[in-house]
Amino acid sequence: MDLLYRSAFQIAEDIKAGKITAREALEFFLDRVARYNPQLNSIIALDEKRARDRANEADAALARGEDWGPLHGVPITIKDALATEGLVTVGGIPECRDNVPRESALAVQSYVDAGANIFGKTNVPFMSSDLQTFNEVYGTTNNPWNTDRTCGGSSGGAASALAAGLTPLELGSDIGGSIRTPCHFNGVFGHKPSFGIVPQRGHLPPGEGTLTEGDLSVVGPLGTCVDDLERALDIVAAPVPEDAPAWKLELPAASFTSASELRVAVWSDDAFCPVDKDVAQSIDEAAGALAKIGASVNCSARPDFDPVENQINYGLLLMAAMGGGMPQEVFDAAGAMVAAADPDDMSQPLLQMRGITLSHREWQHQNEKRLKIRAAWMRFFEDFDVLLCPCAMVPAFPHDHNPDMHARTLEVNGEQRPYMDVLSWAGLTLNAYLPVTAVPVGLSRDGLPIGVQIVAPYLGDRTSLAVGRLLEQHHRSFVPPPGFE
Questions:
Q1: Is the pLDDT score of 1 beyond 80?
Q2: How far apart are the C-alpha atoms of 248 and 215, rounded to whole Å?
Q3: Does domain 8-246 bear CATH number 3.40.50.150?
Q4: How many CB atoms are located within 10 Å of the residue 304 CB?
Q5: In the CATH scheme, what is the code of domain 259-305+368-474?
Q6: How confident is the model at residue 56 (pLDDT cuts 50, 70, 90)?
Q7: 447 and 187 in contact (C-beta within 8 Å)?
Q8: Which of 5, 236, 427, 440 is the right S-S partner for 107, CB 3.0 to 4.6 Å?
Q9: What is the mean pLDDT of the chain?
Q10: Domain spans in the chain, listed from the N-terminal domain onward
């Protein structure tokens, strides 16, 4: 049986049906890794012995009539920002190169408890804090569509490995597009859940032993089809142990039952962050595909807030969330820069410094602004089921490892734009805690994948997934990169 690009949950069903053994499935993916990973560097740590032992145990369990769950015996990889018991977890941080967690991140353990067999880790940028994937410990991960291009970040190794057929399922995290942008760059599927429904505990940073569930960040699945995303979300959506006695989650069903009931808004370009013409066109074409099957489509409706003000608000809250784990000398340097600056200067470099040093009083003011933006989104979704918008304003771009991110630029329709603009469309939806399903919708004129954010109201995860499924069925399903079929 050919397992290449097969649904992870279908692989489990095939294992349970005796069509293939868990050990054979593992060897298939280990062989793919041996053949294709050297040119990509997507998978940076393997746990072959323990994975083979677990595969053998999975097969023996079936022979005894035991069913481990919906991922019984399925070999998978995990983003290297999420702790895996007994398997090195570095997070791209040189000081953590020998870090072997004693227990897995809660969401990772949910995969294991569902029967999955973790055989490797996928690469991330330093502290998962870049939209490219490279670090001093493991080096650079390439895009399988064009190895001269980035695979994105921070779940870049995860998306690259999925696109190349090195793994059937992944688990990523997202605080600045870190699931959505790599999916867009590599032509795979991902889901950024509604904030708070999947535990973050065990993410590096902040690291093992930290109990705080940080602001903005989420953990969610990546795969090669929408069904895998939804079934994986059902597995990882869970409370932290302290909340478990009274915690219950019943995500509403999709807000529509047929395409004729679906109301779609489209925001494919905007002056606040201009979008590459190929990206905008692909999103418009995806909207057109939904219109052809009966959906109503509106290309002019917008939520009632200023996207530039949202970007400032998001930037401050983002850096406040990340700043808590930064060294004291970074905090002190940021404070000095802010003190010397014009109080009205909200340029990107200074915005980051302001966020790092944000006082709790200032944070409360920014959170109030965020709540008003969330309220505007809620009103918007009274008239629409989903919004389609870019994951990022460009397709995958050439590797650029200039240590000064603010010196990097990206070309958009012949104009050089600041590198940090790549956060703009991701932050538009993340700041309001909204669920987003990212699906591939086309190719650029250079043959690079293009994805779209399908945004739904808070806790409307099943609605964004259902629209993703419609696009998968009626517009574009997963297409492997040339040479990896």
A1: no
A2: 21
A3: no
A4: 11
A5: 3.90.1300.10
A6: very high
A7: no
A8: 236
A9: 97
A10: 8-246, 259-305+368-474, 309-366
